Amino acid sequence: MRSAIFTLVAGFVASSSAAAVKRESDSVHFCVDFDFQGNCKDQIVELEKCIAVDADFDNKISSFEPGSAFTFCALFDDAHCQQPIAVIFSSVIDSDSQNGRLDPATTNDRASSFECADAVQ
């Protein structure tokens, strides 16, 4: 399921983006409150690798954003990136991102892991 999400989204984004060098890592920024408030973390992450969030953030993330416009991240409801709950793009290219705010009805305070990928393949 996880690879299907990345393949679908990467193909869509790559078809509308300029060619770029494949990157191995990027940063993410996430917080326990909306609008990037409260306890926050900036983290450099290896792309296409499942990252389980620290106990301080497990099932507490309310704002999440990839570090660059050429990265997207999937959030998962489990620690092993098996149950996807959202795909997040940078607000640089997603004007509907609501400042990284996760939907209170479906994704807020549910993420236990995430995986990011280069949107330009």
SSE pattern, N- to C-terminal? HEEEEEEE
Structure annotation, total helices:
1
- Give the CA-CA distance, first to last residue: 19 Å
Question: CATH class, anyone?
Answer: Mainly Beta
CATH topology, what is it called? Gamma-B Crystallin, domain 1
The description of the largest β-sheet is: 4 strands, antiparallel
Q: Tell me how many strands there are.
A: 7
The portion of residues forming beta strands comes to 35-45%
Structure description:
This protein is mostly beta strands. The relative contact order is 0.27. The radius of gyration is 13 Å and the shape is globular. The protein contains one helix and seven strands. Strands 3-7-5-6 form a four-stranded antiparallel beta sheet, covered by helices on one side. A three-stranded antiparallel beta sheet has the order 2-1-4, with no helix packed on it. Helices cover 11% and strands 36% of the residues. It comes from Lentinus brumalis.
Give the helices and strands, then pairings.
Layout: H1 2-14, E1 25-33, E2 37-46, E3 51-52, E4 63-66, E5 71-76, E6 84-89, E7 113-118
Antiparallel strand pairs: 1-2, 1-4, 3-7, 5-6, 5-7
Tags for this entry?
1 helix, globular, 121 residues, Gamma-B Crystallin, domain 1
Write a brief structural summary.
The chain has one helix at residues 2-14; strands at 25-33, 37-46, 51-52, 63-66, 71-76, 84-89, 113-118. It is mainly beta.
